[in-house]
Amino acid sequence: MDAVQTLPPATYGLLAEFDSPTALVAAARRTHEAGYRRIDTFSPYPIEEAWEAIGHHDRRLSLIVLAGGLTGLLTGLGLQEWVHQIAYPINIAGKPLNSWPQFIPVIFELTILFAALAAVLGMIVLNGLPQPYHPVFNVPRFEHASRDKFFLLVESTDPQFDRAKTLDFLKGLDASEVNEVEP
Amino acid sequence: MINPKPAAYVPGPLIEPGHTFGSITDKIGGVVLTGRTPLSWFIVVSVGFMLMGGLGLAVTWLLIKGTGIWGVNIPIGWGFAIINFVWWIGIGHAGTLISAILLLLKQGWRTSINRFAEGMTIFAVMCAGLFPLIHTGRPWLAAYWLFPYPNSMSIWPQFRSPLIWDVFAVSTYFTVSLLFWYVGLIPDLATLRDKAKLKPIKIAYGMLALGWRGSGRHWQRYEHIYLLLAGLSTPLVLSVHTVVSFDFAIGIIPGWHATIFPPYFVAGAIYAGFAMVLTLAIPLRKIYGLEDFITLRHLENMAKVTLVTGLIVAYGYISEAFFGWYSANKYEGFMIWNRMTGPYWYMYWTLVMCNIVTPQLLWIRAVRTSTVGLFMVAMVVNVGMWLERFVIVVTSLHRDFLPSSWGMYYPTIWDWMTFLGTIGMFLTLFFLFVRFLPMISIFEMRTMAPDAKLSESEGH
Mean per-residue pLDDT for A71-85? Predict the structure, then answer.
């Protein structure tokens, strides 16, 4: 057995606070350029430049929604063909059993329904929600993240993270305040 | 002679100047998190709740006695239930138009009105959905006609019927509208969680917010699917009223069997819906002092949409009359003539006054920018659109091909109690929403604040 016990990290990371979206985006860019990768931004409304600055762009949701829509389409088609040709064939006004043009509305609705469900559930799952607890909530100032302030988090698991050096680095980024995040 | 050039028209602001992220949050969040509820709220909710009591009574009696308590008969087998269903579902359409189509068209002014318009959609669809459910008389036995599930009789719904298309269209519409609304609410629920002072309130909003923390990675996925949902809702909303119109157009009754029905119904739905948004927005901004966010420019824009869709509806009426004559079919011709001069002539001409003549006032800017004038026009349109459905349903059915089978339709007290009851249900649900959830999207309003713009060096 290894004699060295891995201690839990004393800190989850460092959280820098900014007053404006411009300052946040500038800081996020410089932090990313400095080589930090386990970083995140927090803002009270979506800022496209902010997630671009930390090099994040997840395109998987497009495929998930497409898959959801196709599943809905096949479900609608399969259900109606099965019902009218196999399970319960019935002659209505002499129409053929496979009267597919009349199946289009239900196929369409199910395509939309499945795609929308895939979109919302996909977003929730990929975002790791619901997650009522997160260490950033330990910082009292963080309640401004849903109001009027902007935050940048550098996680302690980042290979480049060094408490003193990272703290100095963040302070040099025009942050109005830098707080340590308890795990 | 010198003809002075008219001053260039400058549209008003979408948000009054001087607002910051904090002031927007406090103003909109404050409506929910205050201990004080305006007196007018209690008045509206008590009236709504009283009417809803009538609905409970009417539905109970219906379930005991059956649909014989209603005014429906042969030949008018479809009465208030379908009239009210179509009226309510149409009202819902404006909410989706505002939240989805105007988002895709990058209409910034939608931001102040999309949240409560979406709420309106959901509650209107709930009211609409009640009618097809109760008009079966014994809804608990009706499930196997409506939904495909394996049952002990081994029978399945008839997917060739527009009524089944309707079941799928309306239930999909309700589900997708609810998802869209909830997704839009998540960041605002997080704001309320952080802003609330009392622990139980914090926990309640916190649970609903799913632990949202405004992470950039989350926002990217959020914005991605928000746009996709808008893209999915746009064809959906157009399909819903198209399918509703198929309920009529697939039939062979003169007055229903018309190819103009789908576009004419969709335009009518948006028309009715915008009138209802105005009906709700004008008192709300007054009661809660939200004139800074729902400005005259918003009201004016909505008035313009109402005017345009009203003109499309007018075109629909003219087409119907034209087809009646041009078809050279005596039943079609008789139908439109009977509609204009038969026993229900007053309904038809009141409808023309409400839906075609009165909205022409909206050409005048003084009317579009007067809250009282606009409110009155909107109320007239609400009534007119209900009359439209009455005329389509009743006058087409009451005198069909054989004079020996003609009849008249008179709604009973139970019909009226049910109809007014759904208005009460709508008011109750809507005002509960206004009390407990932010009626304007807080996070989207923040993007409208002057501070939200990135300065030159960082923006793209």
Answer: 95
Long-range contacts, B38-43 (Cβ 8 Å, 24+): B38/B287, B38/B288, B40/B283, B40/B287, B41/B287, B41/B431, B41/B434, B41/B435
What residue type is assigned to position B14 of the chain? L
Q: Which are the contacts of A165, defined by CB distance < 8 A and separation ≥ 6? A: none
Q: Which residues of B touch A20 (CB under 8 A)?
A: 451, 455
Taking CB atoms and an 8 Å cutoff, what residues of chain B touch A148?
20-22, 25
Cis omega (within 30 of 0) on the bond before B450? no
Query: Cα separation of B448 and B28, whole Å?
Result: 14
Chain A within 8 Å of B216 (Cβ-Cβ)? Answer: yes
Distance CA B23, CA B131 (A): 43
Q: What is the ipTM of this complex?
A: 0.91
Q: What is the distance, to the nearest Å, from the Cα of residue B185 to the centroid of all Cα atoms in its chain?
A: 19
Secondary element (H or E) of residue A152: strand A150-155
How far is Cα B209 from Cα B193, in angstroms, rounded to an integer?
A: 8
Task: Assess whether the previous peptide bond of B75 is cis (omega < 30° from 0).
Answer: yes
pLDDT confidence tier of residue B2, bands split at 50, 70 and 90: low
Q: B330: how many CB neighbours lie within 10 A of its CB? A: 11
Locate B168 and state its tokens: 């799928």
Q: What angle do CA A89, A90, A91 make, to 5 degrees?
A: 130
Structure tokens that stand for A11 in this block: 């800190």
A109 near B CB under 8 A:
yes
- Which whole number is the average pLDDT over B368-385? 94
Tell me if the pTM is above 0.90.
Answer: yes
| Residue B247 exposure: Cα atoms within 13 Å on the Cβ side | 24
Phi and psi at residue A42, to the nearest 5°: -135, 130
